[in-house]
Specification:
about 110 residues, globular, about 0% helix, seven-stranded mixed β-sheet, mainly beta, four-stranded mixed β-sheet, 11 strands
């Protein structure tokens, strides 16, 4: 699915509720929102050649229990994982530094 925003295309990749997620990032803003998690997931990025410093990724996940989100390939190593709470939603933003995506701040429970 692709959504037009005021400045560029925002992509929202199709994902699954568990397992490794392969996501190609080519545009200025990417919104990552898998279905409500039923198991642990790992987000692995392929960084496109068009990607520029300052690109943003927004991650939003809803969990059914204590599922975890691990930030794999394409993210700076050592990023804090998201550990779920039953029925809760978490958000986190990342910015591209020319090499990998870095968390702007810790993830936030939004409900």
């Amino acid at each position: 699915m692709e959504i037009n925003s005021p400045f560029a295309l925002i992509t929202a990749p199709t994902l699954t509720a568990t397992g490794a997620q392969a996501i190609t990032v080519n545009v200025w803003e990417t919104f990552i929102k898998p279905p409500t998690l039923t198991g642990n997931i790992t987000l692995n990025l392929t960084l496109g050649t068009q990607l520029r410093v300052g690109a943003k990724i927004f991650v939003q996940v809803t969990t059914t229990a204590t599922e975890t989100v691990t930030f794999g390939t394409g993210f700076t190593s050592g990023q804090t994982i998201i550990t779920g709470v039953a029925g809760k939603t978490f958000s986190q933003m990342f910015i591209y530094d020319g090499t990998a995506f870095n968390a702007v701040a810790a993830n936030k429970q939004v409900n």
